Input
Amino acid sequence: MPFTIPSNDLAGEPTRQSIWYDSDIAILVSGLNAVGVLTGCAVTAQGSPDMTVAVAAGTIQATAGSDPVTVAADASLDITAANGSFPRIDLISASATGVLTVTNGTAANSPKPPGLPSGHIGLAMIDVPANDTTIATAQITDKRVIVFNAASATKEVNAAGRIYAYLNFR
Output
């Protein structure tokens, strides 16, 4: 399920995962500007959990109206070892060229995720508790904003002056 802020009673760690952060707003604003995920790019825990996550292959819209950019699947994107005393929130994103990136948050008593790197598309936030040794599904919050490719749409104006867009699938 794309872009999520879990309900406080459903989040794995509600005090961190059910809060709106600046990064959430930046990801949503990009989506409103037709910059986001076109297909795929879901971030999931490994079948045998460890300190890596898997990112599905997909396509992103790096800038409004541009051609789609392919994001290759990565079955083992490394998450840095957990801090021994404090939790942190990491951000998974894809660059405008489709390169996957993990941006580490800062470990703190009340951590916040890092800012979305310039030109990147947000994919997920990873909650990394203190002393954690595995990334489980409940620690991953989906941050993909699904957009459609305006460059591949046909626009028509009807007699009443309304504009309609039709997707052209390649």
Remarks:
- The mean pLDDT is 86.
- The chain has one domain: 14-167.
